[in-house]
Amino acid sequence: MLETTRLQLVPLTHELLLLYKNDPSLLAKALSINYIERENDPATATDLKEAIEFWLSSTLATPEKFEWMTNWEIILKHEKVGIGGIGFAGFPDEEGKTMVGYGLDIRYHNQGYATEALQAILQWGFSHDQLKKVISETPLGNIGSQNVLRKNGFCETHRNEQLIHWQIDK
Predict the structure, then answer these.
(1) What is the span of the domain harbouring residue 13?
(2) For residues 21 and 156, what is the distance between their CA atoms, to the nearest angstrom?
(3) Which pick of 24, 31, 42, 81 has the fewest CB atoms within 10 Å?
(4) What is the CATH number of the domain that holds 156?
(5) Count of CB atoms situated within 10 Å of the CB of 122
(6) How confident is the model at residue 41 (pLDDT cuts 50, 70, 90)?
């Protein structure tokens, strides 16, 4: 678990991910937090479904490194509710690189929570010698997410018709 001023980040084990997918209210109970139904951005629904399947298969296959390939539940401490998730796309590769992604309940956008969560997980990641570089992608129109990356030191590396690609080095 990671803790910031306003947040707790809890990496979900394979068993907790099953609850995340199948019964989020039981996940909240297992984490001893209050349950609220998430209001996710519809534009990221497909990405989230793909991510859940990746997390489930990866944490089952590599439980000893699950923190690198799971959702870290973002919990707002003063409300004791899960407001989103953040995580890496796997253990760093041979170049020391991995990808990060995040998403928040839309009711919690524009309050600095994603910036705070990203700062915490980057500190955790870069505390491991294997990690040298983190990349991310944002849709061209997602200014909020672009600002989160910039505030955490990411630089744009290139863009295409749909995405901006970002990177931060250790």
Answers:
(1) 2-169
(2) 33
(3) 42
(4) 3.40.630.30
(5) 20
(6) confident
Query: CB–CB of 121/87 below 8 Å?
Result: yes
The pair of structure tokens assigned to 132 is 């040298």
The model's confidence at residue 32, banded by pLDDT at 50, 70 and 90, is: very high
CA distance 52 to 5: 28
Looking at the structure of the chain, the number of domains it has is 1
Query: Beta strand pairing status for 7-11 and 2-3?
Result: antiparallel
Query: DSSP secondary structure string, 20-69?
Result: HHH-HHHHHHHTT-B-------GGGHHHHHHHHHHHHHHHHH-GGGGGGS
- The CA angle 21-8-144, to the nearest 5 degrees, is 80
Q: Which helix (H) or strand (E) element contains residue 125?
A: helix 113-126
HSE-up of 59 (CA within 13 Å, CB side)?
23
